[in-house]
Amino acid sequence: MRVLVLQPGYLGDTVFLGPAVRALKARWPEGRVGLCVTPRGAPAARLLPGCDEVLVFDKRGADRGPAGLWRAGRRLRAFGAELALVPHVSARTGLLAWLSGAPRRIGYAPLCTERVRLDRGRPFVDRALVLAERAGAPGEPALALDAPAAHAAYAEGVLAGARRPVVGLVPGAEWATKRWAAERFAALAAELVRDGATPVLLGGPSERALASRIQALSGGALRDTTGNAIDEAVAVLARCDLVVGGDTGLVHCARALQRPALVLFGPTAPERHRFTHRERALTVGIACQPCHDHGPPTCPLGHHGCLAQLEVAQVAGAARALLQLP
Ligand code: SF4
């Protein structure tokens, strides 16, 4: 069986495919599981256990517009899928699945041969897992990601001489309303340094300025890896004793690597995730939370209290508890 899973979303969305991918591979071990994801999701997709092939759909770049969609469809057709799972909801993804030539398409998007109603109240990992189960491949919802062996030397270099515990800090997020303030990350980092820990900043190229600001505010004692490739960041995350950040892709990568994680929730819902005993979701619990599935570009109430009211002392206390520090 050749199965294609189409999820051209964010990095976190790719990580959440993991349980379904493992279920499909367990059901058809001699088959081939291909993942169609965005360029940002591709490095993580290659690290998902059970993934045989990654097909990139650059919907905002090279594959933009009707001609790009047609070209991407031709690439997918070459995969020869007998079954497609479509956990993404957009009509464009439904059309791409149709262009792939897969005769059976199970999913939430239009043009699926078996269109399923999306239950938005369920955890994100369940979205693809439900579709896999419908295809005859039930599985368990635990996240998993392999550490990239090719970048082990890079990560060892970043952490050379670091005092334990090493704490990864992920201050960025796609949406501004999911970011805790730079000043607070800096204050948290300074507290961690006083506790004897080594904070390491992680993030994408667009977050370099944010990381520099945190570095300057905290007194310059942090290791800054911001702007590196995603698989390099994943190699560093795999060596962290704790990762602290918002509801964002690199933090979910850390969770899938089985790293202890402290997730700071603002406009989004902790209930959309299945946390383990190594993880803690922190939220101030004001009445307007949650207000959005993925995080609005700006706070509709103008005060951003969901993260503005989250104090450094609370986060530092939760971090110490997860690190089992006094
Ligand atoms: S409405 Fe509430 S939950 Fe949404 S961004 Fe504003 S403060 Fe946060």
UniProtKB/TrEMBL annotation:
<keyword id="KW-0808">Transferase</keyword>
<dbReference type="InterPro" id="IPR002201">
    <property type="entry name" value="Glyco_trans_9"/>
</dbReference>
<keyword id="KW-0328">Glycosyltransferase</keyword>
<protein>
    <submittedName>
        <fullName>ADP-heptose--LPS heptosyltransferase</fullName>
    </submittedName>
</protein>
<dbReference type="InterPro" id="IPR051199">
    <property type="entry name" value="LPS_LOS_Heptosyltrfase"/>
</dbReference>
<dbReference type="GO" id="GO:0009244">
    <property type="term" value="P:lipopolysaccharide core region biosynthetic process"/>
</dbReference>
<dbReference type="GO" id="GO:0005829">
    <property type="term" value="C:cytosol"/>
</dbReference>
<dbReference type="Pfam" id="PF01075">
    <property type="entry name" value="Glyco_transf_9"/>
</dbReference>
<dbReference type="GO" id="GO:0008713">
    <property type="term" value="F:ADP-heptose-lipopolysaccharide heptosyltransferase activity"/>
</dbReference>
